[in-house]
Specification:
The chain has 167 residues and is of the alpha+beta class. It contains 3 helices and 8 strands.
């Protein structure tokens, strides 16, 4: 039996690049990733995504500008926590990405994404995101650097996926 923790992950994109952040502290330190974090008690998931993006790189988005493109689940060998991550993407934002205590933002051209300094699972599901396909992925890790097993499914609808799982 797993104890679920809900997280958000937001990617800002344009025609040629994606904005990633280098995690400066805490879980995932020294890894490039999107922006996001824990959903607080009594907080809507979309509101958490908006809040985390602003806190981590000073960029502002409206909830209506975020598109839910994926759902990821992570488990770690010997740990009874299931990290449930809602993945969002947007091309619409205001402000200039700025470094914070948490993250150092940097734009990467799509053909130069630094997979070697990211979570190992990113190379499996990023292609779905970059092709604007909806996806569901499950990854089980040994430690933080070795994937023991995984599964990725392309989805037709995020709404149908969540309805089928009562989420």
């Amino acid at each position: 039996m797993y104890f679920k923790k809900l997280f958000t992950l937001v990617f800002i994109r344009n025609e040629t690049s994606i904005l990633l952040g280098l995690k400066k502290r805490g879980f995932g330190v020294n890894k490039w990733n999107g922006f996001g974090g824990k959903v607080e008690p009594n907080e809507q998931i979309i509101d958490a995504a908006v809040r985390e993006l602003e806190e981590e790189c000073c960029v502002i988005v409206k909830p209506t500008d975020l598109r839910n493109i994926g759902h990821l689940e992570f488990t770690f060998d010997g740990d009874n926590t299931l990290m449930e991550v809602r993945v969002y993407s947007t091309t619409t934002f205001s402000g200039v990405p700025k470094e914070t205590e948490e993250m150092q933002p940097k734009w990467y051209p799509y053909d130069q994404i630094p997979f070697d300094t990211m979570w190992p699972d990113d190379s499996y599901w990023f292609p779905y995101m970059l092709k604007e396909k909806l996806f569901y992925g499950r990854f089980h890790y040994l430690g933080f650097d070795k994937i023991l097993n995984y599964n990725i499914d392309e989805l037709q609808s995020m709404e149908d996926f969540y309805a089928s799982r009562n989420l």
